[in-house]
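can u do me a favor
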């Protein structure tokens, strides 16, 4: 009977869809839990872990969407089966969004300062959310573990930090030599 074979194929597609939906839900929950856990204890691996989970969630979402479209095209489901597929399409989009939110949270866990040594200027620049007279020295110690003396020995003369209101310059020769100006 062709109807039984077609129904069996549709049933297998729907079972596969359910399994994929469970997997994407699990991955999305793992991503958000990992990102939120990273807020309590800074762990450099959090950003990479969550990014990997987000890529997995996105890839699975794309596969689910493609399979849903193929299932509709090949099997022309009706009633309950069609509702199952359309709900899966909507929920998959939401779960993908949760994965992206987890990645956004994890991205906020990156160090607030960007530490790039500008060799021609013999300067380290730090773009930070809040800058003050103690920030350059503290940010360098936190991000690189280097002291001012070590930086000076490597030819760095100035550490500069800035935010939307203030710019501070820290001399590596003298820990007390800090100049802050308003923008």
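np, heres the sequence
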């Amino acid at each position: 009977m062709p109807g039984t074979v077609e129904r069996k194929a549709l049933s297998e597609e729907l079972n596969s869809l359910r399994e994929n939906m469970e997997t994407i839900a699990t991955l999305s929950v793992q991503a958000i839990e990992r990102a939120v856990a990273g807020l309590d204890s800074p762990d450099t691996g959090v950003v990479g872990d969550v990014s990997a989970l987000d890529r997995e969630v996105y890839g699975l979402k794309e596969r689910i969407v493609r399979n849903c479209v193929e299932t509709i095209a090949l099997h022309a489901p009706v009633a309950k089966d069609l509702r199952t597929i359309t709900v899966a399409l909507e929920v998959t989009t939401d779960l993908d969004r949760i994965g992206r939110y987890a990645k956004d949270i994890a991205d906020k866990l990156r160090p607030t300062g960007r530490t790039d040594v500008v060799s021609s200027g013999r300067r380290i620049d730090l773009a930070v959310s809040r800058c003050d007279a103690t920030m350059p020295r503290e940010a360098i110690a936190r991000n690189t573990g280097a002291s001012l003396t070590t930086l000076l020995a490597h030819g760095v003369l100035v550490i500069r930090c800035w935010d939307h209101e203030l710019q501070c310059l820290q001399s590596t020769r003298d820990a007390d030599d800090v100049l802050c100006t308003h923008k």
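The domain at 2-107 is CATH 1.20.58.220 (Methane Monooxygenase Hydroxylase; Chain G, domain 1). hope that helps!!
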